Amino acid sequence: MKEIYTEIEINAPASVVWSILTDFDDFSRWNPFIRKISGKLQEGAQIEVFIIPPNSNGMKFRPKILTYDPEKELRWLGNFWIPKLFDGEHSLVINEISENKVLFIQKERFSGLFVPFFSGTLKNTESGFEMMNHALKEEAESKYNK
Predict the structure, then answer these.
(1) Which of 34, 43, 93, 98 has the fewest Cβ atoms nearer than 10 Å?
(2) How many CA atoms lie within 13 A of 98 on its CB side?
């Protein structure tokens, strides 16, 4: 198993950060990593996600939402080809520090037989998480401070 973990403090309320993270129609404008998500936001639903990690081709997959907890967490489980070969459990977590400040955590646990063969791809994915985190911070803080 391999885990990627990133975090960033954002000077905006959880409600602002959550509204940006769940406005899928606007992802292509501000999000350099997750370029598109479509589907219904509810536990058990299958969504379609299109990502472009740095130095990589884009990849589309259809994960299942495991957790949908407004203003706190969105978590899904996806797999590449066949389950148990290369699975990724992706979490977007908002931890409130104060009324107008949050810690945003983006992490993913990878498991399966093929994980050892994708170390280069996982480094690109981690860079994509960092890019998205900084873009989310900029987007949320600019919306909140208007």
Answers:
(1) 98
(2) 6
